[in-house]
Design brief:
The protein is 73% helix and 0% strand. It is an all-alpha fold.
Length: 363
């Protein structure tokens, strides 16, 4: 472990919260309403259970191996060969997901703001900025997340200016839909909650030993409050028509107008969303470089910043032809991969660790 890297528990919490909610705020009302209807407000509650389970598994593994990440301690549990295989799987998946997030960001900016800008320019600028932050070190974008998060939350509170448009009757009748539909609506948000997995990458570098253990659960709770609130607000505004909007929260911001000067509040949402996506990509990018260094057994993770930057740009351009196809891929394939990598593999490692520990104790 690089002992020079140190962040606080609050910085880790800010990083993880922005990672979870940054890509969720635009689309979570639409993806939950699509399956759960006006019971969409229940879906994030179910989704958070998956995040709590993942957080518990990661924290238990951290107790056993406090100074190592999954790329390192998997070797002690399953041996060199299998640890190399799982490590490679994680690296390939994180590379793919990072590229997908970059492409989602670029498609949104292209369709909502910069209509004539070449896609490669939008992608390239974001990757260069994130590469610079990763090159500067974890502490830099961790501090940035700590500054951005309050701005992020405060900006979302602007939606409360639409309270006179809220129709509480849009919630009724409660629990009219089937539980199966509500659980189906919880599948996509569960992917965001399961990204608490990256706490396992950050924990060895957190200096506040007393408080870092509860941070993961706080992140899940606060992220749930944000997602729940956005779903409720969009339900009150749009009723069962929420899923007819690709980005309901963006549309809601367009309705905000404070005469005589303040309008076009959707630009505020774009700014905070870009800040959140920047932090998320930086964390994934950092994990790629750090994980590769640990997987290969070398010390300087910054060596891999430039090569991964090129790969992210290429894959982001190649991964999809349009946003609709990309969303279909995310809905059909990503859930299976994330359940395997973020939940099942860490759970298997934890169970094997306990088995090995009991065997040693019985000898």
């Amino acid at each position: 472990m690089n002992n020079k890297i140190r962040i606080s528990a609050k910085q880790m919490m800010s990083l993880l919260m922005m990672t979870i909610i940054s890509t969720a705020i635009l689309s979570i009302p639409a993806v939950t309403s699509k399956h759960a209807g006006h019971d969409m407000w229940v879906s994030p509650i179910f989704s958070s259970i998956s995040g709590l389970i993942t957080a518990f598994i990661i924290l238990q593994l951290h107790k056993l191996y406090p100074n190592e990440t999954i790329f390192q301690y998997s070797k002690h549990i399953v041996g060199t060969f299998l640890s190399k295989c799982t490590g490679l799987a994680y690296l390939l998946y994180i590379l793919l997901v990072t590229s997908i997030i970059v492409r989602e960001y670029a498609d949104f900016i292209l369709t909502s703001l910069l209509y004539s800008t070449p896609l490669v320019v939008i992608i390239g600028v974001m990757v260069i900025l994130c590469a610079y932050s990763v090159k500067s070190g974890l502490e830099v974008f961790a501090r940035a997340s700590q500054v951005f998060l309050p701005i992020y939350i405060f900006s979302l509170l602007v939606l409360l200016l639409l309270f006179h448009e809220f129709d509480v009757k849009n919630m009724l009748p409660l629990f009219e839909g089937k539980w199966k539909s509500m659980l189906h609506g919880a599948l996509q948000p569960a992917l965001w909650f399961n990204q608490i997995f990256y706490m396992g990458i950050l924990l060895p570098y957190v200096k506040d030993k007393a408080t870092k253990k509860v941070v993961g659960y706080k992140v899940i709770l606060y992220s749930l409050i944000v997602m729940f609130s956005l779903n409720i607000i969009c339900l009150f505004l749009f009723g069962e028509n929420v899923d007819s909007y690709q980005f309901p929260v963006f549309t809601a911001f367009r309705y905000i107008y404070i005469p005589p000067f303040f309008e076009r509040f959707e630009s505020v949402l774009v700014v905070i969303w870009v800040l959140g996506v920047f932090i998320k990509i930086s964390l994934f990018y950092f994990t790629l470089c750090l994980g590769t260094a640990q997987w290969l057994g070398v010390e300087k993770e910054k060596t891999f910043v430039f090569p991964y930057g090129i790969l992210i740009i290429i894959i982001a351009l190649w991964v999809s032809t349009n946003l609709a196809d990309l969303n279909k891929f995310i809905e059909s394939t990503i859930p299976v991969l994330e359940i395997g990598l973020y939940v099942l593999i860490p759970l298997s490692l934890l169970l094997l660790s306990f088995i090995r520990k009991k065997r040693k104790a019985s000898v």
